[in-house]
Structures are given as C-alpha cells and as structure tokens.
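Dear Dr. L.,

I hope this message finds you well. Following up on our conversation about the binding site, I have prepared a predicted three-dimensional model of the protein together with magnesium ion. For your records, I am including the exact sequence and ligand specification that went into the calculation, followed by the structure tokens. Please feel free to forward this to your student if that is useful.
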Amino acid sequence: MVDITKRFVDVVANDKVSFSLFPNEVCALLGENGAGKTTLMNILFGYYLCDSGEIRIYGRIVRLGSPKDAIAHGISMIHQHFTLVPSQSVLENAMIGVEGGFFLDKKKARKRLLEIEKQFGLDLDPDAMAFTLTIGQQQKLEILKALYREAKILIMDEPTAVLAPIETRELFATLRTLVDNGRSVVFISHKLNEVMEISDRILVLREGKNVAERKKSETRVQELASLMVGREILESLQCSDSAAGNTVLQLKNLRVRNSKGVVALDGFSLDLREREIVGIAGVSGNGQTELSELLFGIRRPEEGSIVLDGKEVPGGSPSAMIRAGMARIPEDRISTGVCMDLSVMDNMILVDHCREPFSKLGLINGREIRSWVLDRVRDFQVKTDGVDAPVKSLSGGNLQKVILARELAGQPKIIIACQPTRGLDVGAMEYVHQAILRQKERGAGILLISDDLDEVLLLCDRVIVIYEGRIMGELCSDGIDRERIGLWMSGVA
Amino acid sequence: AGKKQFQIAAIFQTSIEEPWDGAIHQACQKVAKELNLKYEYSEGVAAADFEKVVREYSERGFDFIVGDAFLAGEEPSRRAAKDYPKIAYAFGSEFSPQAPNYSVFDNWIHEPAYLSGVIAGMMTKTNTLGIVAAIPIPEVNRLANAFKKGALSVNPRVKVKITYIGSWFDPPKAKEAAVAMIEGGADYLFAERFGVFEAAKEAKVFAFGNMADQNSLAPDVVVTSCVWDMYPLIRKSVDAIRNGSWSAKNLKDWSMMAAKGSYLASYHGFDAKLPVKVKTAVSDLTKKIMNGSFTVPVIETELVSD
Amino acid sequence: MMADIFSASFITGLIGATLRMSTPIILATLGEIITERAGVLNLGIEGIMLFGAASGFLATLATGNLWFGILMAALSGVLLALLMSFLAVNLGLSQHVAGLGITIFASGLAMFIYRKAVGSPVVPPTVHPFSPLAIPFLSDIPFIGESFFKQYFLTYITWALIPLVSIFLFRTRFGLRIRTMGQNPFAADTVGVNVNRTRTICLAIGGALFGVAGAFLTLAHQNMFLIDVVGGRGWIAIAMTIFGNWNPLMGSLGGLMFGFLDALQLRLQSVGIHLPIHVFLMIPYLMTIVALVGVSRKATVPAGLLKPYRREEKGG
Amino acid sequence: MVGLSIVRRQTLPPWAEILLPVAAIFATLIIGALPIVLAGGNLFKAYSSLVYGALGTRFNLLETLVKASPLILTGLAVSFAFRARFWNIGAEGQLFAGAIAATAVGVYGTALPSWLVIPACIVSGFIAGGLWAVLPAFLKTKLKVDDVVTTLLLNYVMIHVMGFLLYGPMQAAGSSWPRSEPIMDAAHYPILLPRSRLHLGLVIAIVMVLAIWFINARTVFGYRSKCVGVNINAAHFSGVNTDMTILKTALISGGLAGLAGVGEVCAIHYHLLMDISPGYGYTGIVIAMLGNLHPVGVALSAFFFSCISIGSQTMSRMAGIPVYIEGVI
Ligand SMILES: Nc1ncnc2c1ncn2[C@@H]1O[C@H](COP(=O)(O)OP(=O)(O)OP(=O)(O)O)[C@@H](O)[C@H]1O
Ligand SMILES: Nc1ncnc2c1ncn2[C@@H]1O[C@H](COP(=O)(O)OP(=O)(O)OP(=O)(O)O)[C@@H](O)[C@H]1O
Ligand SMILES: [Mg+2]
Ligand SMILES: [Mg+2]
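The resulting structure of the complex is given below.
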C-alpha cells in the first residue's frame, strides 16, 4: 500500500500512509486510538475506498472496490467486532459467501472445515451455534472463516483485546502455524508486550501518518510506547499503601443463572472493603459477565444475598445499586455504557439527571447541567468538539473518559469496573489506571473484573480467580504466583 | 333557473363503482345529457370532508345537490341546506326531509325483492334459499325481509339462510358465504352484494342480482335482478326545481315500482327456462303492486337464518 | 343447529373454505417472510397486493389469458417492490414510511389504471376465472378428497411453496445469505455478499408473491376487481410473519388459522348461529396477539430488520 | 453491537437533516406528476389549482387548518412514541378510542355541569386513547411482544369494538345505521372564526405541540424517553426505569391520538360513526417521519399534508384529474 490517503467528513484518517507486508511474517500495526489503523486495514480489505494512493498485491496494482475483491485476492479481515451470525451454526457461519452450488452442500463443507481445523489445530464443533461459543471460540471461528476462503493475508484488528492470557497464547500458536504455512498476518494491538512477542516487524502510526517502522529485534517496549504517543509513558503507578477499611460490599453464596437459564455463578461469596481493589480474573465466559450484570442490578440472584454498605439490597434494580453508592463501568461501552446518538452532555448526566440541582419537580435545569458537565469534561480531559457533540464522534478512549467522569462524579463508595481498558491505547490505559487508583486512595472499594491478567496484577490488592462460575482461589498481591493463577484459570485446583 | 345553465352536483362517500352511489351517478349523467345540464360529482368523500364539499358546491351556485348522506353526511348536508335555502338538496338518508329545501330518498326496492322471493319460493327444489348481505342496516334488512316474505307467500315450507359479510366490498368473502349456503342446501340465492354469482356458477345453482341488471355478470345463473333506477327521481326533481315547485319531501315514492323507480329486470335467458306459472304469478303481482292493490310490507329488523 | 355443525358436509365445506380463504394470506406471508429475513419490513404489502389484483385482472380482461394475468400481477409486484427497494434500501429511508408510502401510492394507482381501462360501468366487467381443479383419484377420497383436492391451482401452488420457501431459506446458498444479512448485514458484507443487491432481490421475490396473492382474489377466488378486494389481508400477512417467528411453516399455519376463523364465522351465520359479528371478527386479531405473547419469548427477530445498511463510505 | 459500530461515527451535517424532507417532498411532487401527465392533465394547472385549493381562499385556507388539527395530533402521537422507539403504528385505533370516550361523555354525561363537558370529553378521550396504547406497551415491556404488530392489530380490534358499540349499546335510538346519538350541544367545540369550521381543536393541537416540545426539551421524563429511544440498555443500566418510561410515553402518545378523535367527534361530526377518520392515524406516521420527530417539524408537515389533501380535491375537480390521484400524491 503506497501513499494511502483517506478523508472522512472532518478528519484525515490516513495521510499518505505506506505499508507493506511480506510472506511468512506477522506485521504489527501500532498507534493510539484514532491513529487510523482500522481505517487503513479497511481500505486493504476493500471495505473503504481510499481517496488516493495505490494498492499492489504481489507487485500488481489492484483495485479493491469491495470485500469481495479483497477476498478474491486472498485477503481476509477479522474485525474488532466479530461478524458472526449468532443464530447460525459454526459451519453455516464459515460457509457464507463461498457455499458452492445452489443448494447448501453441508457434507462437503463440513469435510473441508474439519480438514482445515486439523491442519491448523483449531478445534470447533461445526454444529455448535455461534451464540454458544466463548469469545475465544468465536475468534477461532473468525479465523476458520478466513481460512475457509483460502486467505493468504489475514488482518486481525485487536484480536487479543477480548482474550484471556491462555486464549491469547492459543491464538499466537495458531498465528505461528499460519505464518509457517505461508500466510501473512497483520496484527493490531495496544498491548505492547504481545506485539513484541508475536510480530516480526512493527509499524507505528500517529494521527494518520507513518511515524516509524522497526524490526522486532531492534526495538523495545518503551521505545514503541513513546513512538505511539509522542511522549514518554511511565506506567509506574504510585499509590500510598493505606490499609483497607470497613467492608462495603458483601456477596454471600450467590447463585445466578444467565439468560439461557444456565447457572453462571454458583456459591459465589466475596467481601470488598474500603480502600481496596479486588480483581476478578478468569477466562472470559466463566461468569464474569453475569457477576457484573448482577452487581449492576440488571440480573437477579436465584440464591444468596448482596449486602451493600451494611444494607441488603434486592437484585434486579439498577437504581437501588446507584442509590447505595455504587458506580459502574460497563464492559460493553457502546451497548450499555452510552447512548451513541446523544451528546456528551446528555450522556454525562444519564445517571444523575434526576438529582437536584440538575432537575427539580421533573424539570431539567439545563444551565446547572451544562456548567457541571463542562467541569467534568475539563477534569477528565475529555477530547471533544464541545459538550453538544454526539459521543459517537469521540474516540474509544474519550468515550471511556465520559463514562468515568459520569460514574465517578458522585464520590462512589463502591466501583465495579468491567474491562475498563479494553481496546484503549497505552496512553488512555495509563489514564484509566490512575483514575482507579485515585478512587482507591479516596476510600472507595473497587472490584475490577478484567480478562487482562497484567492489569489485574498491576492494580489489585487481592485477586480472585473464577472458573465456571466458582471461585477457584484467592491470592494477595504480595503472594502473586502467575503459575498458580494460570492453572486456576484453566480449572485446575 | 334562468338563463344560466342548470347545474347538478353529486357527492358520494364511496367510489362510483359502489352500486348504490353508482345508481345515483348513472341517473344524474342520463338526465344531464338529456336536458343538457352541467353535472359534476365528488366521489370517495371522507366523512370529515363532507361538509366542506357540500358547502363548496353550494357556494359555487349549483342548483341541485344530491348524494348519499347516510351517517357522515346527515348533519353537514342539513346544516348547509339551512344556509342556502335557494338551493335544492336531495340526499339518501334514513331521516325525514327538512323544510324548505332538503328532500330525502332511499333505495326502496323491496318490491322487486319480494317478487324475486316469489320466483325463488316457487322454483326451489330444496326449499332452502340464501341471502348474502353486507351489514344489517334498514336498507339491507328491508330487501332481505321482503325476499323472504315473498318466498314464504308462495311456499310456506321454505327456509331462508342469511349471512352478513360485515363489509360493503369483499367479493371473496361474499363468495365464501354463498358457498357455505349452497353446501347447506340453498339453491336460489339473493345476492345483495357482489361476489355471490361465482359460487352459484361453480355449484350450478341460481341467484338474483341487486341494484342493477347484473345478468351480464353470469348469464347462466342470474335469473333476474332487482333494479333501482334513480332516473325518474332525478328527472322529476329537476323539473320541479325548474318550475319552482320544489319542496322538502320524502321522495321514496319515486323509487317505487309504480313510478318506475324500481323494477324487476328482464329474465334474459331465463325467459325460456322459467315455467309459465311462475312468470304469470310475477306479472300478476307486479300489476297489483303498480296499481296499489297490494303493498309489500316494509320490515327493517335484522334477519337471522332459519 | 348443532347437528348442522357436526355434519360431514359442514366440516368438509369448512375445510375447503379455510384452504381457499387462507391462500392469499399464506402467499403474502411467505413473501413477507423472505423479505423480512433479509432485513426489510415491507409495509407496502397491502398496496402491492391491491395493485397485483388490479393489474392481473386487467391483463386477463384484455387477453383472456389467466396465466398472463398472474404473470402481470407478479411483474407489477416486482416493479413496486423495486421502488420500495430504491427508497428503503438504496436511499435508506425509514422502512415504515417507504412501505406505507408504497401502499398509498399503489392503491391510488391501482384504482387509477382500473378506471383508465374500464371506466366506471354499472356492472363491473368480469373475466372467466380459474376453476377449482379436482385432482384425479385423490379428490374421490371421502371427506378429505372433497376439501383438500378440489382447490384452485394457485392453492396447490401455494401449498407447494411452503416447503419450497423453507428449503430455499434453510437449505440453499441464497437462503443462507439472506438469513445472514437479516441478522447481521455487516457479516454478510465482509464475506463478499452484496447486501443491498440481495435485499433488492428478496424484495422483488416478495413483491411477486404479493402481486400473485392479490391476483388470486380477482382471478381465482373472484372474477372481478373492486376497490377493497384486498381488505386488510396484507396487514394480516405481516402479523402472521411475526406470529410464525419468520418460519414459513409456522407463518402458514397462522394464515390457515386466520382463514379458518373467517370461514367458520361465515358458516355459523348461515346455519343460524347468531354471534355478535363484530365480536367474532375481533377474535382472529386477539388470537394473534395472544399467540404473539406465546411465541415472543423465543422470537428470533432478524436483528438487521428496519436498519438500512451502508458502508461508512456512503454516509460520510 | 456490530450494527452500532457501522453507523458509529456518521453524523449528517445539520443542513442535510432539513434538506432531506424537503427533497422528499419534491421527489413526491415529481413522481406524482407522472400519473397526472398520463391522465392527460395540464401539470402547471394541476399544481397551481392544488395550491389554490389549499390556500387560495379564506374558505380553503380555513378548511386546510381544520384538517391540520387531527393530523398534527396524530403526527405528534407517532413522533413522541417513535422517539422512544415505541413503534406505535396504532394511532388510528387510539384515535377511535378517544372518539368513543368523548362520545360517551358527550351523549351520556348529561349530569355534568355544562362548563365541564368539554374538559371531560378531552380528558376521557386522552385517557382512553392513552390506555389503548399502554396495552401494547405493556405487552412490549413485560412480555417482549413486538409492538409494531400489536399496535397494528389493535387498530383492527378497535374498529370491531366500535362496530360492536355502534351496532349495539351505543347505537342511536331509531337508527339501524352504525351511528351514535348526537352529543349534546355543550360538548361542541367552540368555533374560532365565524362562518367557518375552524374549531378549538386547532388550539389544542398547537398547545400540544408546545407541550411536547417542552416535555422533550425540559423535563426529566422527556430526557429519559429520549435516552430509552437511543439506547435502552444504557438507560436501564443507568437507573432509568425503562419500562415505566415506555409506558408513560405510550400513554401520552395514545392520548394525543385520542385527542384527535375527540376533536373529530366534538367539532366535525357531533356523533360517533365508523368512518370518523380517513386514516389520520396512518398519515400521522408519515407526518412524524417527515417532521423528523420534532414537534415543530410535525406541525409543519401536518400542515403540508393537509394542504395536499385539501388542495388535491380541488385539483381533481378543476384539472379534471381523478380523485384517486390524491392518494398517489
Ligand atoms: N466512518 C467514519 N466517519 C468519520 N470518521 C471516521 C470514520 N471512521 C473512522 N473515522 C475517524 O478516523 C480516525 C481513525 O480511525 P480508526 O478507527 O482508523 O482508528 P484506530 O487507529 O483503529 O483506533 P483504535 O485504536 O481506537 O481502534 C479517527 O479520528 C476516527 O474518528
Ligand atoms: N433482570 C431484568 N431484566 C429486564 N428488566 C428488568 C430486570 N430487572 C428489572 N428490570 C426492569 O427494569 C426497570 C428498572 O428497574 P428498577 O428496579 O431500577 O426501578 P425501581 O428502582 O424499582 O424504580 P425507580 O425507577 O422508581 O427507582 C423496571 O421496570 C424493572 O421491571
Ligand atoms: Mg481500530
Ligand atoms: Mg429505576
């Protein structure tokens, strides 16, 4: 790809970016949120048309007008948000678009799929419905889809953002197999350690421009981080080690079923105290989501009780949780965190709008709200065109800042943070981590639910590992033993 | 009247394909052509727009405004008539005329309906007759009852089935209603609504048309039809307006057989098929009705299948 | 009276009528299922059916050929569906508005061309319609022969279409693509399936079925065209689509239920059982709502329904 | 989630939001021209007579305003519901419900002091229409039943309810037609201008436009209803009682449609009949979308539709074009 330029209405997402990829290599694409990585890859995938520049594949200039063209040239892309159809089986998902004849020949397709699975060591039941798959399995399915289309070039947009360490390791093994079999991979990630682990070559973008290209052997994490952000990053968090206080959240013997009626949490108990960060680690899909839903008040426990700040609260009421002083940072920012079509101001006030002085007797006090939101935007350094800009115009990091600003406004006693840095670049991640630590210093009890073990280990005072809805074990920060945690996460006691 | 061309306006709540409004429309057209009058009409006038349309014609100086006022048009047309006492109004209505200028009329075709009942009663082999009707309102019930009375007058053993299809226009449904009756044994059907003849044709039974001569729809099936002819009514009204003798009246007499406002249509192909006995009975009765020695009873209650 | 109801002829007649009356509803439901599976709610259905009824009738009136009429009905259904597609798929207008607009437009146009063609005579023109086709041998079976195998050809076709549409949706390449884009158009696009084109094709198939469903009313069940022939059957098909959980078999079952209640109601009247007609006419609607409550929990609403699909490119 | 990410960063510039409906109007006028030409009409004459018919004389203008009143109300009803993603296709049935209630008060409420009759009609009509909309909203929130279908089906149920009443308990004595007794004089909406049909309904409609504008812009409820529409999960998560918000939205939406029905009974027909609305509820959907779901936009587009409807009647008479083209346009 040479001199690719892509403009959206008001931003230049790619400005004369050049990029090349060689056979048998993993090339990483690095950059802050909004640097233009996804855009560049979407152009390579034929999903966007570039305004100028040219694309050459094996030396020949090609025109990629749609994903169909790209697929024909052996390019497949696995998007950040998976493109699976939940109500269809693995097999059906894999064969869409390359079904062969008029009728679906599932027998033949299945044979081919199983062959591919064997060749690359990916095992998935072809008849499983996509919605029953864990995130890691869904990703395998995406890779299978690509291989089913005989992809030579595989683009993966932040594939590890949603994976647990074990899954990441599996993915990397798969990627290695792919590369050894003559495929090339473009790997986008914000996790610099991973980038250093898997890639052969690293390309850094900033504000839509090439800034640097490094061989893995010639660089270090620190250098990459400063290349990305344009300044030094010091992920050395300092926090006064004050003793934890009274218990603010007590979960006793909870049993929770998920929407499919399966028991997702069983016999789950936990104490959270003031000035304490407790981490929940585990491979995703082992009850973390249900735990967060329970604490957010959108799911009811079947058994057990929740005691918030000394008072027992019934499940199933978000407002009861909020009233009891709980702040919630949701896992899925877009679908449960914000209203994408509404302005920064509207989103910022979502929780507190019915509190005085923001509203009185059912009437909204626009002036109060505006000045308060302006303060918040300033405090949290949200980058936006103004408080009236719709939040969908914000980058992922800034979106998360809006949520933090909103949730941390009321000096909450308890904070439930789910995957708070998923998809964020190192700069934003640093910011979020610091915000969490500041809350701890202030006296809040924080429950951190994260698939990112590094993050959990970095921030938490205690780590609880769950597996299939049960607590496998608990460790204090001074006795951290990665090996043990890894075993617990895979269900070995 | 005067030097200015005489102008008629008609206001219809349905489209002019609907037989009731169609009858008025045809008559107006005929009279307008015959006497070289100006004729304009509005069809499909929504209930909410009725008053606007009446007033618009009144304002534009039409001499004679006719139409169907049932339901939505009643009050608006009467209110307008009060405001324009010089203009003559005649509306299809279930209520009384309103002095000085608002007359009412209706489809008084119970007489031919009675006659067709007589034919059916004499001809039926199964002693079962059927009526497919729209909605149980007086205009419809009147015909259904007359048909039944006519049949019973010549054949006391006859049983009459009736189905109201619940709408003015749903031929497929009317057909299904007819099929059901035929399967229940009916062999002569009174088709108050469109849709019946197809069923009769398939099952080789017979039917009577309504409102217009509908023989052409199914010549093998339609014995005869009860025709409503608005021509005499419109013609006589125009004459009365022109010579200044217009007053608010119930114009129903002009829709009766005696005034040729309704009649039994020609038998067409059935002229040869009907026994002489039947034809004489009908023509005798017709004479009696015309000269007033026999009056067909008007019953407007809802009919239920025997 | 009760004896009438339990007589064999009442029951065979009832079944026969049920099949006839449900035919247009089932046809339209199948069309709507295909369209909605692809992610487009076509509220133009009522108007397209009416237009099909008119154009099919007029074509037959002009040529005397019934199959030509059916063909024209299907074609005009396709044309209107393409207009819908242009508005709702290509321009991405709200599917509600585009659909209702099509219904208003098509109803007006149907009446307009009908007037143009035949004027407004006292007695409407008629055609010689399809007659019921008795299938040899099968129609001689006692009871069921009379009700099931003496039907219009189009009714047989409709019944054949139910499994065919199922196979089409669940067993063919095209069906897989349709289901995919109804659930997740983005997924379909990223595997190289042209979302908008496929949606257009589905709309066209649906439009053809709507047109034929309308023509069934004027060319088989009846032999004339009148303004209200369709009488809300299109809206019922929309309800049946959802009632049937976007499944051709279940949707057709719903259509059958509707036909049954209507037929039953007419037949009870003719044996003198006098129900308050309006209460009775309400029942099918209420039953549909009750049924919806029952199925809603497992409803698989196509997630892409109502959402126009564009790549960011076009919007930006 | 995926769907969201597609439209994620796409905002239309504000001029496009205004231009789009205008373009739509022009498109319809051009498409509408086709059959006019086919019918052999003179296009210029046709459109000028349309404008004349709608606005040309005092009488025509006032008639246009008369027709605009119910259209504004149904348009508002739909827009208010749609804003909260409550897909209310049932304004027609809610209008009927309001009309029935107003008639009941207007006919049987003889014991009421006369100054109270009109307010009683209005309130009961609002409540009846509202409750008829709350039913599908309840099914939606509690039982997850699709609201598009239930609201649509309930229209038909209401038509039959009305049929039942008008052929049964509410039928006027001495009439076998489906009509009620006339409402008492005290229930007649006052006429605003002499020698016209312009009535209180227009004032009510305009007050409602302002009220909805106020609710949307300034109240907690309006804000919640907007959030629920944009992302119900996020709203629920943030402690908004989403079920309650939808139910209240439905109540107001149905109530507005009910008011349209009250107006038709108390100012146009003075009794209840089956054809009380020529599809005002359905037109309301198109009006709401054309008005961009904004109350002022709704008022303008309702006025526009009223012009088209009134004007095209004149057009068909003057330019010799069949009235069915009205539907086409
Ligand atoms: N469809 C679009 N319309 C308008 N602007 C867009 C669109 N897509 C992306 N952008 C803008 O282009 C820039 C680059 O976005 P892109 O998604 O490529 O960033 P990224 O590097 O992938 O970021 P992240 O790390 O958050 O995934 C951003 O400023 C973004 O707001
Ligand atoms: N698990 C759940 N799934 C779906 N909906 C739920 C669930 N739990 C609660 N709801 C609904 O969400 C809405 C908001 O509930 P919530 O309990 O927060 O309101 P509340 O606290 O009772 O009332 P208020 O808003 O007056 O404070 C309620 O209408 C409730 O029925
Ligand atoms: Mg990205
Ligand atoms: Mg609440």
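In brief: DSSP finds 14 helices and no strands in chain D.

With kind regards,
A. P.
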